[in-house]
Amino acid sequence: MLQSVSPTRFDLQFSIAGIPVRVHPLFWVIALLLGSNSGHPLMVVVWIIVVFISILIHELGHAFAFRRYGQPSHILLHATGGLTVPESMPWGGGYASVGLTPNQHIVVSLAGPFAGFAFAGLSLVVGAALGGDIIFTTILDIIPFPIVYIPAFNGILTDVFITILWVNIFWGIINLLPVYPLDGGHVSRYFLIQRDPWNGMRTSLWISVITGGTLAVFGLVFMGSVYMGLLFGLLAFQSFQMLQALGRY
Q1: What angle (nearest 5°) sits at the alpha carbon of residue 234, between those of residues 232 and 236?
Q2: For FRET with 117, which of 57, 169, 172, 210 sits at 20 to 30 Å CA-CA?
C-alpha cells in the first residue's frame, strides 16, 4: 500500500514548478466513491476537486522540502492517496540518490501535513474576508475543529469551506499519527532510530501496529467508516509483516 503504481494511458500528467505530477485513474474513482454520500451532485464534484487540490498541496509540501535538500522528486496521486517519490540524480557514470540525514527526513515528512494546515488557514482567512463567521466545534468531542459559515452566500459555498477544512485538518492530524508508512510513521521511525540505532526500527513498527489497529477499530466502531477501518487495518498488518521480516535476521 501507498507505493508507486505502473503508468497507464489514462493517467493525467502535468508539472508544477518543475515537479512532475501523475494522477492515476483510480484516484478519481476512489474520490468519487468516498464523496458519493455527499447527497447533492454538486457537492460530489466539490468533494473530488477539494480532495485533488488538498492532496496535491500536501505532496507539494514534501516535494519542495526534498528540493530544499537537493533531492529531486515526482508526485503520484493514486487509489489510496498521494505519494512523493525521490528520484536518482546523475552521478559520475551512473545515478545516485541524495543521502538525507534523519532530521532532514523528519522535516520532509512534516512538510506535507503542515502544507495542508497552511491551506486550511488560508481558507479560514478567505472565508472571514467574505463575511463568514468562524465557529469552533469538536470532532467526536476530541479534535477542535473550525467551521466557516458564510451567511451572505448560499449553502454550497459554506460546504466548500467546510470540506476544505475537513480534508486538510482532520486527515492532516490523522496522517501525523505514528503509523507507517504515513508521515507520522516516518517521523516516529527516524526519531527512534536516532536514539536507539539497534532497536529503533523495531520499536517504531510495534508502535505502528498498535496505533494502526486501534485506529482501524475506532474508524469502524465510532466513525462508521469502512474505508478508515480497512486502511488502518491493512497498514497495521503491513507493519506486523515488516516486524516478522526483521525477526528473521
Answers
A1: 65
A2: 210
CA distance 164 to 230: 24
Enclosing domain of residue 234: 179-249
* Total domains in the fold of the chain: 1
The C-alpha atoms of residue 132 and residue 222 are separated, in whole angstroms, by 31
Tell whether 38 is covered by a domain.
Answer: no
Torsion, CA 236, CA 240, CA 245, CA 249, rounded to 10: 130
Cβ neighbours around 198 below 10 Å, total:
8
Q: Cβ-count burial of 1 within 10 angstroms (0-12 exposed, 13-18 middle, 19+ buried)?
A: exposed
Are 211 and 179 within 8 A, CB to CB?
Answer: yes
Residue 232 lies in a domain: yes
Q: Residue 15 falls within a domain, yes or no?
A: no
C-alpha cell at 219: 474508524
100-143 pLDDT, tens digit per residue, is 889 999 999 999 999 999 999 999 888 888 777 777 776 665 66
Q: pLDDT-based confidence at 238, cuts 50/70/90?
A: very high
